[in-house]
Write a structure and sequence with these properties.
The termini are far apart. The protein folds into two domains: 1-40; 42-231, no CATH class. By secondary structure, the protein is mostly helical. The chain is globular, with a radius of gyration of 21 Å. The protein has helices spanning 2-24, 26-39, 43-54, 57-79, 83-88, 90-116, 129-134, 137-149, 152-161, 172-200, 202-205, 208-231. α1 crosses α2 (26-39). It has twelve helices and no strands.
Amino acid sequence: MIYNQSLFILFEERLNFVIGILVENSFSAFLFLCFILTITPGSDTALVLKSSISGNRKNIMATILGICSGLFIHAVMSSLGLSAILQQSAELFHFVKMIGAAYLIYLGVRALYEAWFSGSKTNLFLVSKNERKQVSVSSEFRRGLLTNILNPKVAIFYLTFLPQFIDINSNPLVQSIGLSLVHIALNLIWLFLFGYFVTFFKAQFEKGRTKRVVETLSGSAFLFFGLALAKSKD
């Protein structure tokens, strides 16, 4: 009993120590929060999962670069104050949000269709090399780019999240872009590791039943995030 109490006290002291560091060092807090947000599953994760299953490494990198490019565009717009227009205009925000939601739902329906209805009955889910070439690198890049550009929540994230870690005594534009690049770099690394992990077990995933399950999960994720975005409050 005493041993358990000692462990609890030690854990509490360590936790308070870590919290103290995060509070005193805003950049450490920024990294910590960005890490938590980055590893949280979302539409980007579902997109990389689908690309990892149905494409090759070039397709995966194209998807990830498209995602990060979309983040970068939002970051630049936020740093220049252009995203403030989106935040102030309820009509424009709602319009962009609904387009983004519709695009995610489209990706979900398409993924579910490919999982359950495309191909022949005898070899329904094994993707040949020729079929993989049909999904061009540019298409994967464009898909990743649009997924983020058409999500106004990303713009609001940069507008509301970054200012909390900017020192008003220094150049805010440089700091804003710098913090945005750190966030984008974390996304790039995490999505690459996730994509590599999926491709490492790709032989298992490409088995008919397993592939159907994975494609269904990714398609369902797109539908979920699309509907969640559409129903979210402006």
